Amino acid sequence: MQPPSEKSSKIRGFGKKMAAASLTLIVVAGAVGAAGFGAQWLKKRADAASPALVVRAKPVSVTPIRIEPGFEVQRQFLGQLEAAQASDLSFEFGGRIADLTVDEGAIVKKGDILAALDTSLLETNTSRQRAARKALQAQFEFSKKSVERREALSQRGFTSQEALDEVVSRTAELAARIAEISAAIENAEIMIRKSKLVAPFDGRIAARYADSGATIGAGERIFELLETGRPKVRVGLPVSLDIAEGAELEVEIADARYVGQVRAVRPDVDPRTRTRSAILTLQDGPQEAYGQLALVRTLSRVETPGAWTPISALREGAQGLWTILIVDSEGQVRPAAVEVIHAEAERVFVRGSFQDGDPMIDLGQHRVTPGQSVRVVEAM
């Protein structure tokens, strides 16, 4: 039989083993529960998560390329608006200005009297000449009758031939003096008519150079008159530009557009500008100030195959080349090298490695890269 102390120690050892086993079972049960809870929580997270996105081809807008046999180039040249006629008006002889009927800026009609000289001396001289002619005409009539009487007496032998010749000569002299005075009277009348300065055409007075009461010489300027009819535009064109007379060109003056017809092209070249001057008549004359600048536009045809593309469709390629992006039959983006022939404000005319009808990406080239698959959403 075991002693009591030994038995007690065995009982205590068995209790410790049972406690350790119970603790182990509790820890294992907790771990299994935690694992189950974690798996369930992860499953819920997975169920609640969004499904994976499916990558789709990027949509692009395209425009079919249209190859044309050539294009027209619009060029602009700077010209100047001029009056159809511009004249410096003056009197043919000198005198004192008695009256000026118009001032600068006045609109006049053909035949209007613009100024007049003092004609009192001319009128007095004309009256004197008329009186002298009347006296000579009276002497001429008496001399003619004397000739008739002398001829009758000469036929009967009562007068000499010398006396008859003297009367005939006197009559002829009187006739010549009458003709001379008549010419002087006619000259004075012409001068009186020319003492009135008349407008040679419809126009506007651009400048006045004299005042009433001033004494002027022959040919001295009194007015500058500009015609207000159809104005003209003078423009210098390059020698290489062939413009035929009668051609119609677009003319822009002060933001207004007109149609100008080529009236003449000078055959010589301006030594300063190395251009030929062309004169255009405007069909609908503007009421603009003469001397104002005018833009003359011309169109010339360039025969070279190519296609128009928007500037936004150009993409800088390698080694300074330009490219455009084209969508091939498999829906992939590929570059096409192009050469710019002519450029305008928003478009360019190009030629290169593309075919007629190829779909060109016209918007958003920066959003795609060569070799990328795309989806055409718009065809223009």
Description:
The structure is a single chain. This protein has 380 residues and is an alpha+beta fold. It folds into three domains: 60-69 and 304-379, conserved putative lor/sdh protein from methanococcus maripaludis s2 fold (Beta Barrel), CATH 2.40.420.20; 75-84 and 229-301, Elongation Factor Tu (Ef-tu), domain 3, CATH 2.40.30; 86-198. Helix content is 31%, strand content 37%. The chain has helices spanning 4-48, 120-156, 161-194, and strands at 58-64, 67-68, 71-82, 86-90, 95-100, 107-108, 113-117, 196-198, 203-208, 215-216, 221-227, 232-238, 248-253, 256-265, 275-282, 293-302, 306-310, 315-316, 322-327, 333-343, 347-352, 359-363, 374-379. Strands 2-17-21-20-19-18 form a six-stranded antiparallel beta sheet, with no helix packed on it. The chain has a six-stranded antiparallel β-barrel with strand order 3-12-15-14-13-16. The model is unreliable at 49-55 (pLDDT under 50).
List the defining traits of the structure above:
380 residues, alpha+beta, conserved putative lor/sdh protein from methanococcus maripaludis s2 fold, Elongation Factor Tu (Ef-tu), domain 3, 3 domains, six-stranded antiparallel barrel, 37% strand, rod-shaped
What sequence of helices (H) and strands (E) makes up the elements? HEEEEEEEHHEEEEEEEEEEEEEEEE
Which percent bin holds the helix content?
Answer: 25-40%
- End-to-end distance, in Å? 112 Å
Principal-axes shape call: rod-shaped
- The percentage of residues in β strands lies in 35-45%
Tell me about the biggest sheet? 6 strands, antiparallel
Strand order of the largest sheet: 2-17-21-20-19-18
Low-confidence stretches: 49-55
Strand element count = 23
Q: What's the number of structural domains?
A: 3
Rounded to the nearest angstrom, the radius of gyration is: 55 Å
Oligomer: single chain
What's the helix count?
Answer: 3
- Mean of residue pLDDT? 83
> Strand pairing plus helix content: what structural class?
alpha+beta
